[in-house]
């Protein structure tokens, strides 16, 4: 065996003291004991699959003053994320095959983690040409960062039919633009009122009527009243972010908490947290969307929406495991297994045939989150002062890349699409 990892491994839904044998970057065998050319014995530490963050904005190309694939992927792997799916609202937007391939070349040159690239859906998008190389398609039903707004599903009727025919996931920013208010904003409460929970509910209903042939995935669900609507649409999956689980309008964040869809009230985040525990939400994704502090220091009305989160996502969730608010199975399912299943990548499980992406965790070792010590180019966090359990080591395809928060391996990120042979 080329590489053997020994520890308290999360295998088939439970922790088991065992060895994971790795050949050519993939898990080849799991047994009580194995011999290998290189052996990593992590003692009693937990070994879980590397997390998959199915929703990031690494701002590359076009907005690399905020982030790029190098800094974003460094943040990802230091937080135990070994694969990311990047959204299409870059400059230029990823809506053509040439733009998709240009972004892929950039990511291959810079990324420390494996990746998939979303293609944007707007009128005229050549879905068929993009479907073999994109990890999925993204539809924006409300205005947010970038210029991919589609105000009516009738505008993209043919494109939605083509997405359905492709079998790819249609991930949707589900807010009904026609219901969005445009009053001046001075606070998180104002922002929430302008983009009410009714905006989200209306968008979900419209998708259930006009896009139900697609493999629908609702991004960043923000309101507890959306949960019953999700259950009514066949073949639909949904995600929630750590910020919608853990932050609300009472958080004293000002513009740092300005996101789309907005932070809501405490009962919403508590309802979403329970929904995650009950299996009503499939995955947790960060919606990592960094802006510089200078941009966030604009007046509330003009400050851009979005916050970083790829590095803190898994640590925050693991701290809730430590505090017994979540079980480890819920975290592994939501951050590892289900993203891999939904998007069809060979990752997210400790099982033969899967990529040997692993995070090594000392569940007792929580630390205080400090934005200045994180690796995103923006160098701030809305979770400042909260606790997270950061990985002690992270392996990508069997190679240790990060150890004790330091980069020890070489860049080896590659496109995860079409690599299931």
Please give a quick description of this structure.
This protein is α/β, with parallel strands linked by helices.
Order of helices and strands: EEEEEHEHEHEHEHHEHEHHEHHHEEEEEE
Number of domains: 2
Global outline: globular
Going by CATH, the architecture of the largest domain would be Alpha-Beta Barrel
* Mean of pLDDT: 97
Could you please say which CATH topology of the largest domain applies here?
TIM Barrel
Tell me the helix content: 25-40%
How many DSSP helices? Answer: 12
What's the gyration radius in Å?
Answer: 20 Å
Structure explained in plain terms:
The chain has 421 residues and is α/β, with parallel strands linked by helices. It folds into two domains: 3-47 and 353-407, Urease, subunit C, domain 1, CATH 2.30.40; 50-343, TIM Barrel, CATH 3.20.20.140. 26% of the residues lie in helices and 23% in strands. The chain contains twelve helices and 18 strands. It has helices at residues 69-78, 97-110, 127-131, 157-166, 188-194, 197-210, 227-230, 242-246, 266-277, 293-296, 313-322, 328-343; strands at 3-11, 14-23, 26-31, 38-49, 51-56, 81-86, 114-120, 136-140, 169-173, 215-218, 237-240, 283-284, 358-361, 367-368, 387-388, 393-396, 399-403, 406-407. Strands 3-2-1-4-13-16-17-18 form an eight-stranded mixed sheet. It is globular. The two termini are 20 Å apart. The model has no long low-confidence stretch (mean pLDDT 97).
């Amino acid at each position: 065996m080329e590489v053997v990892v020994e520890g308290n491994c999360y295998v088939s839904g439970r922790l088991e003291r065992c060895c994971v044998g790795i050949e050519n970057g993939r898990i080849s065998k799991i047994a009580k004991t194995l011999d290998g050319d290189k052996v990593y014995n992590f003692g009693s530490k937990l070994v879980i699959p590397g997390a998959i963050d199915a929703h990031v904005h690494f701002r590359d190309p076009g907005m690399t003053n905020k982030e790029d694939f190098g800094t974003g992927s460094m943040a990802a792997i230091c937080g135990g994320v070994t694969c990311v799916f990047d959204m299409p609202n870059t400059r230029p937007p990823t809506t053509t095959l040439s733009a998709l391939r240009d972004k892929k070349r950039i990511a291959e040159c810079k990324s420390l983690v494996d990746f998939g690239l979303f293609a944007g859906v707007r009128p005229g998008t050549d879905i068929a040409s993009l479907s073999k190389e994109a990890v999925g398609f993204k539809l924006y039903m409300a205005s947010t960062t970038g210029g991919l707004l589609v105000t009516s599903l009738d505008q993209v009727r043919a494109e939605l039919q083509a997405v359905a025919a492709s079998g790819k996931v249609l991930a949707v920013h589900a807010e009904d633009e026609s219901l969005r208010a445009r009053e001046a904003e001075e606070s998180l409460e104002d922002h929430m009122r302008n983009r009410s929970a009714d905006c989200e509910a209306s968008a979900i209903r419209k998708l259930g009527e006009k896009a139900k042939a697609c493999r629908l995935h609702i991004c960043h669900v923000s309101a507890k009243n959306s949960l019953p609507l999700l259950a009514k649409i066949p073949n639909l999956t949904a995600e929630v972010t750590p910020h919608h689980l853990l932050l609300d309008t009472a958080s004293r964040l000002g513009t740092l908490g300005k996101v789309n869809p907005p932070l809501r009230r405490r009962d919403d985040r508590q309802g979403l947290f329970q929904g995650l525990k009950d299996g009503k939400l499939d995955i947790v994704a960060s919606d990592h969307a960094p802006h510089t502090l200078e941009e966030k220091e604009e007046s509330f009305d003009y400050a851009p929406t979005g916050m970083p989160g790829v590095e803190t996502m898994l640590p925050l969730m693991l701290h809730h495991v430590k505090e017994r608010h979540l079980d480890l199975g819920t975290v592994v399912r939501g951050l590892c297994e289900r993203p891999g299943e939904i998007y069809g990548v060979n990752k997210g499980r400790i099982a033969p045939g899967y990529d040997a992406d692993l995070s090594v965790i000392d569940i007792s070792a929580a630390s205080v989150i400090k934005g200045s010590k994180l690796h995103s180019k923006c160098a701030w966090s809305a979770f400042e002062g909260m606790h997270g359990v950061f990985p002690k080591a992270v392996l990508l395809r069997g190679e240790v890349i990060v150890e004790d928060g330091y980069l020890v391996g070489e860049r080896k990120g590659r496109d995860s699409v079409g690599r299931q042979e």
